[in-house]
Protein 1
Amino acid sequence: DTEVTQTPKHLVMGMTNKKSLKCEQHMGHRAMYWYKQKAKKPPELMFVYSYEKLSINESVPSRFSPECPNSSLSNLHLHALQPEDSALYLCASSQVTVAQGLYFGPGTRLTVL
Amino acid sequence: AQTVTQSQPEMSVQEAETVTLSCTYDTSESDYYLFWYKQPPSRQMILVIRQEAYKQQNATENRFSVNFQKAAKSFSLKISDSQLGDAAMYFCAYVGSTDSWGKFQFGAGTQVVVTP
């Protein structure tokens, strides 16, 4: 059983659409992460929320917009995406001390047409 | 900046045999954490094993063990008695103990192929 859940599992959207990805963690963690992963590549960090404060990877385009209403829930809002944004989007959580590592959700497979 | 290097894009092993995956890292920090993650074809990333830099003893988890050489900045993963279910991409990861944002550095990954 995964304790980090992500919905939807798959998403197909056009370049003019607006959609959101959802992530919930049930582990009592205080940090949540969004990663982008291309096939056979390592995950690339997009955003980190720690105690509801946000850290942004400066290379992430503004068409990605994170939200963290509380420490157990995070949404990634998508608008005006490009085909190159097609990837697996992984959510993860951790304790504030990073010693125990990251716990990943199953991911959302996003295809942009 | 810290970097993590996995020099083996792919490793092949027969069932019941042992395979060792290499990982080296570059850091100026003295205290940090190292991890191996497994990502099977179903794509969920799973934590396999972790190592604290200030601990001399190598971590073990069932058939998985590490060889941590702090001076050499090396952190290899040994999979013993390999099983078909071990087939996956394996990522080595580093994070500094004082990194308040938890910005983990991942290696490029090693694809493990298990043959019957």
Protein 2
Amino acid sequence: EVQVLESGGGLMQPGGSLRLSCVASGFTFKNYAMSWVRQAPGKGLQWVSGLSGSGVSTYYADSVKGRFTISRDNSKNTVFLQMNSLRVDDTAVYYCAKQRTGLVETPIDIWGQGTLVTVAS
Amino acid sequence: SYVLIQPPSLSVAPGKTASLTCGGNNIGSKSVQWNQQRPGQAPAVVIYYDSDRPSGVPERFSGSNSGNTATLTISRVEAGDEADYYCQVWDSSSSHWFFGGGTKLTVL
């Protein structure tokens, strides 16, 4: 079964750092781009970042550029989201998503269950 | 930035047809994905590449895209279709994915 599973969420203070992980299974991980999408409480979906299957191409939403870094370890079937300088408005459920090809611009086909990040003092 | 406009809510009776719209500047030139999010659950894809259905999604779900409006059509609506629906497009000029604000579909 193709699936992705996020972990690493928690309660952080403003200005802190957190690293999310997403472990993939059921497919050849290195062949597929991956993205992170978040959803603030009671709000809609917001794309955060994407990374090509090769790991060469990275993309970021303007709201996180310079603070968040996406990366992957294809030997461990894992994609990461390093979040620095966290702000209260980063509070959200963060979903990991697999794309249909190695390119970030192709549609998502699999969503994870999400991990909650809360930023509060 | 590319803006996608979705009506916040839509109500439909069981057995009827629901048409959910997603408006964007020349959206017909882009490829649209539709995601369904039932209460308390993660999103799931119901339509991609404007009108393709993933395996397991009922044929009652269909999509179209032309001009400035993309449409998700759900025929013979069932209680289990009650969910939030989000359209999604890739904007090549900014290399960003954008989501619409979502439409909450209520089955009466």
